[in-house]
Amino acid sequence: MQPADEILIERSKNGDMDAFEQLVHRYENKVYTVAYRFIGNHADASDLAQDTFLRLYHALPSFRGESSFMTWLYRITANVCRDEIRRRQKYHFVSLDNETENNGDHIMSRVSGRTPSPEEVVEQKEFNGMIQECIDSLNKEHRLILIMREVQGFSYEEIADILKCSLGTVKSRLSRARQAFKEKFNDRREL
């Protein structure tokens, strides 16, 4: 049985690197997923996940447990991603390679359990790319709240706690974010 987060946190605060590594291992996929949804590219998401855990390591002594550890870690992740987005807005970046990575995974049909045809794989990849482009084109506040709710599955209350705002604010921001996403998605589909 794995130790609870609280035990690992206390051990990490006392310098136990094994406990910190267990925390990283426990949350690395969630942090990476959030970073990927913010940035839209695997290599940068991996770098941002590393930056998040580096910040976590330095900030861990200040964790007081007023919110859940996951909420606090998500806040750090969101801040790291926002910092990167602000940095990118200052400078113009040009990608030297087009990301066409499939990680060797085959997209499987959940209904029939069959391997999709090459056309279906291409269509699914294009669709996923269009979704990511729409997410990337949202302003950072809309992107953040949409990822938190629709990708990460946080409750409205958890989002309010993370963003330090009221439940009503979360609901209205999410409504505006969904509307903005829908408009961008419809515009891209028409092309």
Low-pLDDT stretches: 92-113
Biggest sheet record:
none
SS summary, helix count: 8
Report the average pLDDT across residues. 81
Element pattern in H and E: HHHHHHHH
The CATH architecture assignment of the largest domain turns out to be Orthogonal Bundle
CATH class designation of the largest domain: Mainly Alpha
CATH topology of the largest domain: Rna Polymerase Sigma Factor, Chain: A
Radius of gyration: 19 Å
Structural class: mainly alpha
Distance between the termini: 52 Å
Strand and helix layout:
Elements: H1 5-13, H2 17-39, H3 42-59, H4 69-90, H5 118-137, H6 140-151, H7 156-163, H8 167-190
Helix pairs in contact: 1-2, 2-3, 2-4, 2-6, 3-4, 4-7, 5-8, 6-8, 7-8
Structural overview:
The protein has helices at 5-13, 17-39, 42-59, 69-90, 118-137, 140-151, 156-163, 167-190. Helix 1 (5-13) packs across helix 2 (17-39) and helix 4 (69-90) crosses helix 7. Helices cover 71% and strands 0% of the residues. The model is unreliable at 92-113 (pLDDT under 50). It starts with a helix and ends with a helix. It has eight helices and no strands. It folds into two domains: 1-93, Rna Polymerase Sigma Factor, Chain: A (Orthogonal Bundle); 116-191, Winged helix-like DNA-binding domain superfamily/Winged helix DNA-binding domain (Arc Repressor Mutant, subunit A). The protein is mainly alpha-helical and 191 residues long. The longest helix is centred in the C-terminal third of the chain and has 24 residues, at 167-190.
